[in-house]
């Protein structure tokens, strides 16, 4: 079994790392807040003191980080420490440019795969994620199989691009549902009736996500994803949705809360 280093133990990273540990892989973990690693260490993972220490002996490196800045900071530390033959699975939602910039920094002896995921914490815990994978996945598909189903998207960076497209649709859709329910409230339409009607309409998936429970996609992260998207193309509807999420994320009670709570705020604000 390959030695795996997993960096980033947030709401998604921790259950994903646990899946790899349960599959029998020797696992070294690192997180900026070390306390988040304690449950995994109790289950047999080894806690590294730095990103470089985590990857030094790793056959496979997995990064699941918050944003391009976090990925860049970690990359600065681990690129010089990667061993020849290592495979790096980059699973953060950062857009294609950071992925391609990262590939340019790596030597020929390291293989980079961009593999962001669709799905929330519930699917991360059960291995039911949809993994969008760009680049050469041949050496890591058996590792990814512990986390979910792999959908090949094309060359390196293509998965990161598609993830932005899909997240923009989901996050924007949730904001649209919230505004539609605000309109229903303003018109005096019964809230439950409006919700049921919308759930049975073409936007039903967004309705389900707007009222989801037991899952987590942080509001600040949603705003980050829309910022990445709106920097890429002129997207007036998504720019309006971004302002909703920015205002919600500015509330300390909502910054790290699931977007379903942001949707409730959008409905009433």
Report on the biggest sheet.
6 strands, parallel
**Biggest sheet, spatial arrangement of strands:** 3-2-1-4-5-6
- Total count of helical runs of at least 4 residues: 13
Order of helices and strands: EHEHEHEHEHEEHEHEHHHHHH
Q: Supply Rg.
A: 19 Å
Kindly name the structural category.
Answer: alpha/beta
Number of DSSP-assigned strands = 9
The helicity comes to 40-55%
Query: What is the arithmetic mean of pLDDT?
Result: 97
Cα shape: elongated
Straight-line N-to-C gap? 52 Å
Instruction: Name the beta content range.
Output: 5-15%
Outline the low-pLDDT stretches: none
Could you describe the 3D structure shown?
This protein has a 6-stranded parallel beta sheet with strand order 3-2-1-4-5-6, with helices on both faces. Helix 1 (13-22) links the parallel strand 1 (4-7) and strand 2 (27-30). It has helices at 13-22, 38-42, 51-55, 68-78, 96-105, 121-126, 141-144, 158-187, 191-199, 204-210, 219-230, 236-249, 259-268; strands at residues 4-7, 27-30, 46-47, 60-63, 87-90, 111-114, 117-118, 129-134, 148-154. With 269 residues, it is an alpha/beta fold. The chain is built from 13 helices and 9 strands. The model has no long low-confidence stretch (mean pLDDT 97).
């Amino acid at each position: 079994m390959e030695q795996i280093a997993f960096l980033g133990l947030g709401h998604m990273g921790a259950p994903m790392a646990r899946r790899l540990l349960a599959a029998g892989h020797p696992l070294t973990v690192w997180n900026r807040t070390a306390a988040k690693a304690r449950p995994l260490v109790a289950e047999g993972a080894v806690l590294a003191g730095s990103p470089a220490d985590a990857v030094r002996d790793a056959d496979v490196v997995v990064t699941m980080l918050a944003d391009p800045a976090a990925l860049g900071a970690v990359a600065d530390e681990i690129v010089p420490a990667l061993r020849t033959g290592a495979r790096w699975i980059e699973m953060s939602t950062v857009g294609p440019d950071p992925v391609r910039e990262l590939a340019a920094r790596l030597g020929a002896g390291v293989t980079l795969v961009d593999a962001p995921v669709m799905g929330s914490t519930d699917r991360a815990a059960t291995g039911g994620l949809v993994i969008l994978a760009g680049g050469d996945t041949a050496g890591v598909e058996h590792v990814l199989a512990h986390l979910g189903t792999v959908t090949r998207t094309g060359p390196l960076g293509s998965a990161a691009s598609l993830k932005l497209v899909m997240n923009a649709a989901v996050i924007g859709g949730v904001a649209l549902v919230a505004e539609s329910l605000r309109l229903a409230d303003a018109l005096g339409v019964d809230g439950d009736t409006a919700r049921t009607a919308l759930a049975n309409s073409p936007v039903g998936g967004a309705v389900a996500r707007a009222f989801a429970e037991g899952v987590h996609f942080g509001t600040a992260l949603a705003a980050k994803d829309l910022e990445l998207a709106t920097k890429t193309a002129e997207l007036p509807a998504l720019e309006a949705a971004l302002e909703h999420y920015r205002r919600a994320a500015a509330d300390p009670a909502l910054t790290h809360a699931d977007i379903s709570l942001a949707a409730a705020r959008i409905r009433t604000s």
